[in-house]
């Protein structure tokens, strides 16, 4: 990753995480600023400029640190689901990524006030002590890709190991297990990998590990004793979708096995309207756009419902055929 300038918020300077990040990234240029938003949110930077160089902001997250997740976001419909924001933007470049068009810049923002995020999690978990409360990471940035630099996972681990009704989900496509290797598996933390067919990952998940590499990382984590999840999301239509999906499910079953996986979600490709427009502009030749999308009542752009349901049902049948228990499968955001 080529860094142009590391912008360090004055308010972030005293956090241990800030010192770690600055030391590990060791950028040529560091500039102290008052508020990252005056640059990150105000300057419009083309999304694809991230291929050449980008700025990194080390900042304090203000406002809501832990937010309620939308309906059908996570496994366990009787559980409560929240997500927390540890960073904005991502080192990978998936063509369907919702981050394009979401922020006005692809620059990375790394937040350092993890103690405050954990404080809010603690309060939420205590208020619902009789319930399972999930906290999902990876909504606005991959949760493992930079974890060896940001090094916050140990703090979260401490909190989750002391709070049995709180569950952590780290969503990722990364095979960077450096930080995970420093941790001991706990029952209430799951590393969930986004997977797609081999063909789809090779075509659309630019700069991200291949589907095979992700399976290898899952195998390694399983050997180390960590709990795992899988998100087959987004599923993208292709005439050979069924056979391609069956191939990755076979690999998953042989290399990881469903006994080692707590849950598997299936979700069909969808876009917020702005993101749809931006993705089409950024990747005009992508075959993601070969099928028609229509705008739903929630304003999201999706395939027509019969096609979505056909893909989801086919996915579920293939998973079951290869030995995945049905109660581990759920449909995401449908
Ligand atoms: S890994 Fe996720 S956050 Fe990163 S570019 Fe791909 S879709 Fe976006």
TrEMBL record:
Entry-linked InterPro entries: rSAM, rSAM_sf, SPL
Entry-linked Pfam families: SPL
Listed GO CC annotations: endospore-forming forespore
GO molecular-function terms, A-Z: 4 iron, 4 sulfur cluster binding; DNA photolyase activity; S-adenosyl-L-methionine binding
Protein name, as recorded: Radical SAM domain protein
Native species: Turneriella parva (strain ATCC BAA-1111 / DSM 21527 / NCTC 11395 / H) (Leptospira parva)
């Amino acid at each position: 990753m080529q860094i142009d300038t590391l912008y360090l918020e004055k308010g972030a300077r005293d956090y241990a995480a800030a010192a770690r990040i600055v030391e590990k990234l060791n950028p040529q240029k560091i500039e102290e600023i008052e508020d990252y938003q005056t640059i990150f949110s105000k300057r419009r930077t083309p999304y694809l400029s991230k291929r050449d160089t980008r700025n990194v902001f080390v900042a304090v997250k203000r406002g809501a640190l832990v937010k309620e997740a939308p309906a059908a976001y996570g496994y366990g419909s009787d559980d409560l689901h929240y997500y927390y924001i540890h960073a904005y933007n991502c080192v990978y470049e998936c063509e369907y990524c919702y981050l394009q068009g979401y922020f006005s810049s692809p620059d990375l923002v790394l937040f350092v006030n993890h103690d405050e995020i954990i404080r809010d999690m603690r309060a939420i978990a205590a208020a619902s002590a009789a319930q399972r409360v999930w906290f999902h990471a990876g909504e606005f940035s991959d949760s493992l890709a930079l974890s060896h630099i940001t090094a916050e996972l140990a703090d979260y681990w401490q909190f989750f190991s002391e709070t049995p009704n709180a569950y952590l989900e780290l969503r990722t496509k990364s095979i960077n297990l450096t930080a995970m290797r420093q941790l001991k598996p706990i029952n209430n933390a799951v590393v969930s990998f986004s997977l797609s067919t081999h063909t789809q990952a090779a075509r659309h998940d630019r700069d991200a590990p291949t589907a095979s590499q992700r399976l290898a990382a899952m195998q390694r984590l399983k050997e180390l004793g960590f709990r795992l999840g899988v998100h087959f999301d987004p599923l993208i239509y292709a005439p050979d979708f069924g056979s391609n999906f069956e191939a990755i499910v076979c690999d998953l079953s042989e290399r990881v096995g469903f006994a080692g996986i707590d849950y598997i979600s299936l979700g069909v490709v969808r876009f917020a309207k702005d993101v749809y427009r931006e993705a089409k502009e950024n990747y005009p030749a992508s075959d993601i756009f070969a099928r028609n999308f229509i705008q739903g009542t929630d304003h999201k752009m999706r395939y027509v419902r019969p096609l979505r349901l056909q893909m989801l049902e086919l996915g579920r049948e293939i998973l079951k055929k290869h030995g995945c228990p049905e109660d581990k499968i759920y449909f995401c955001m449908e």
